[in-house]
TrEMBL record:
The lineage of its organism: Eukaryota, Viridiplantae, Streptophyta, Embryophyta, Tracheophyta. Residues 1-23 are annotated as: Disordered. The keyword DNA damage does not apply. SUPFAM superfamilies: Clavaminate synthase-like. GO terms for molecular function: metal ion binding; oxidoreductase activity, acting on paired donors, with incorporation or reduction of molecular oxygen. This is Fe2OG dioxygenase domain-containing protein. PANTHER family: OXOGLUTARATE/IRON-DEPENDENT DIOXYGENASE (PTHR47991).
């Protein structure tokens, strides 16, 4: 367990309700390697991928070229026509919103335990001077099903569990389509990536996040800069307010909100498997003075017991192996973070 890890004296939501100024431990640290805090950088021209074209015989080729270019330059894209209707997504957003609107005493039942990420609360604290994020979140392991810790799954609103279970299964299917398209875009056998994720114990985690309005958006981040440790992350944004930013070529860009799109970004494990051809982008979330923001991030990860590494077909004389193989990247990533080391650098050859 991390020394000093405990739940915050007050949630970000409660501070926003009480009109508190953010305490000093929430203040952005200008001495960080990813540059200053800009609340309105230019919009990211992140490509839009029409999922319905990825497997259509006549339109597939152009969409795969677009996908490859998106993942080699940005490491992310906006997925549209993914099969989930506007009303379905709005219902999901509504359920998450209802959970966050419950009184604190009710949400407290699902508080995460000290030293563990799962449950309602904040990020774990690893060191005294760790900057805090202006957000509250519910973090759940969704798959494999037999590893669900239902004591952290809200019973209120009544349809929470069933809604999240259904969304889990849908995201799992969409992820397989994306994995297959990513393989095809690199001229690899279709199941090349998906089989590393879906054989036996594929892992899916969900983070349901509330970024309450913040009185000091130019001094406080909703979520600090990071890359995801996942294979891929599928993010449902709040249609009413922007906040997510991606770093590209040393510059920050705001990700535009497209109401019914899923924002897909790669995580470190895809950068490793693709031998560095695809990027796992650094991203962060800024806050807003007037508006709160709710997002749902779903992270797919391979079986932690399985060794992952660059796929053989992407290693040759011109492109030698960039990464070592690694098992249980989640734990490895966590250990690196505690030592102040970047996990992706630590697996470089
Ligand atoms: O809330 C967002 O827009 C991004 C969330 C995110 O990057 C994460 O949970 O890893
Ligand atoms: Fe992220």
């Amino acid at each position: 367990m991390a020394a000093g890890d405990s739940l915050p004296a007050k949630t970000a939501q409660q501070m926003a309700i009480d009109g508190d100024q953010p305490p000093s431990k929430y203040m952005f640290n200008n001495n960080n390697k990813f540059g200053g805090l800009q609340t309105s950088p230019p919009f990211a021209p992140v490509p839009i991928i029409d999922m319905s074209r990825l497997f259509s015989c006549c339109k597939q080729e152009t969409e795969l070229v677009k996908l490859r270019s998106a993942l080699t330059t940005w490491g992310c894209f906006q997925a549209v026509n993914h099969g989930l209707s506007d009303s379905y997504l709005d219902n999901l957003r509504g359920v998450i919103k209802q959970f966050f609107e419950l009184p604190l005493e009710e949400k407290r039942k699902y508080f995460r335990e000290t030293g563990s990420v799962e449950g309602y609360g904040n990020d774990m604290t690893y060191s005294e001077n760790q900057v805090q994020d202006w957000c509250d979140r519910l973090f759940l392991r969704l798959l494999p099903q037999d590893q669900r810790k239902l004591r952290f799954w809200p019973k209120n609103p009544l349809n929470f569990r069933e809604t999240i279970d259904d969304y889990t299964m849908k995201i799992k299917s969409i992820s397989v389509v994306i994995f297959e398209a990513m393989s095809k875009s690199l001229d690899l056998e279709e199941s090349c990536f998906s089989k590393q994720f879906t054989e036996q114990h594929d892992v899916l985690q969900g983070r349901f996040i509330l970024y309450p309005p913040c009185p000091a958006p130019d001094q406080v981040l909703g979520l600090k800069a990071h890359s995801d440790r996942s294979g891929i992350t599928l993010l449902l944004q709040d249609p009413g307010v922007e906040g997510l930013q991606v770093l590209n070529d040393g510059k920050w860009y705001m990700v535009p909100v497209i109401h019914d799109a899923l924002f897909v970004n790669l995580g470190d494990q895809m950068q490793i498997m693709s031998n560095g051809i695809f990027k796992s982008p650094v991203h962060r979330v800024v806050t807003n003075k007037e508006k709160g923001r709710i997002s749902v991030a779903m992270f797919t990860e391979p079986d932690p017991n399985k060794e992952i590494g660059p796929v053989d077909a992407l290693v040759d004389e011109k492109r030698p192996r960039v990464y070592k193989t690694v098992k249980n990247y989640a734990v490895f990533n966590h250990e690196c973070f505690q030592k102040g080391v970047i996990a992706l650098d630590a697996v470089k050859i």
